[in-house]
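Contributing new records

If you add data, match the layout below exactly. Sequence lines come first and carry their own label; structure lines follow with theirs. Keep one chain per record. Anything else will be rejected by the validation script.
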Amino acid sequence: MSRELLKGNVAMAEAAVRAGLTAYYGYPITPQTELLEHLARRMVELGRVFLQAESEVAAINMVYGAACTGVRVMTSSSGPGISLMQEGMSYIAGSELPCVIIDVMRGGPGLGNILPSQADYFQVTRSAGHGDFHPIVLAPASVQEAIDFTTLAFKLAEKYRHMVIIAADGLVGQMMEPAELPPMQPISHREPSWALTGAKGRAKRVISSMYLEADAAEAFNRKLQNRLIEIRYAEQRSTEYMTADARLLVVAYGSAGRIAQSAVESARQHGLKVGLFRPQSLWPFPSDRLAELTTQGITDVLVVEMNAGQMVEDVRLAVNGRLPVHFYGRMGGVIPMPDEIEAVIHEQYEKQHDLMRAGI
């Protein structure tokens, strides 16, 4: 396979097609509209289902219906649209249905703007709908990761019969860079044992999220929590850069992580022992590896995000009070530049030295 120049949104759309996407339902909203536009052409070319719904509320409920039949189904949107999908997402979770949702994050709150942001972190990791559940959340930092995570998302969704969200900030969706697409996979015609495909010749199947009796509802929730424990143990993902001898650890994901890597490289050239930890799964958050890293000579942690400080809470939980955790963020679609992140790194490094000189 050869690499080609691809925009992030188009790359995710084509990766989904090649992963065997059978049905897509969505509604246009920047900065993810190119994803929908690409699928409007490709899905029709291939004789698959594409439907531009009348709203995001309609789109997610169409995803719900299609997911009941066991096919690979997906939608995509941005912050305001994901907000409208919350009730449907909870029904999907309560019905134990696999699906993929792509959130190309933009500035908020409210209508906000179409600029890159990471302000949907709480929205997608804390629940993504009412009730006690978490979707699996993957956060790409490049077009290649956006492709790879889209393919992975369908596999994880089917493995766990669970919702998977790809949290790609607007910069990932809009950037263009060389990347390699996977080969085309055939549409699967297998029938999952739970799928609603017509009951002729077999006992009927029922998919529902309604449990009117408290005991039955609790039993289902215990089953769901056990699955979440399994996912939390098996699906933590992260990558590291220059952490072997680091004293200051920068933690950042998505575009912020990629930008922070440039800042770390420059700080290293100035003799600072700094490393980068980049979560690739936001839920389950890679707490185990981060906890391990922060017991190996690191004295401070700096979290960098394109929001007011949301992932920083998960970092603090993982560090568990062993080290000070600092935060630097830009909001509203402002992208932090490598030089400003490096300036914060130098500032924190100097504070470390001052404390060491003071014997604290």
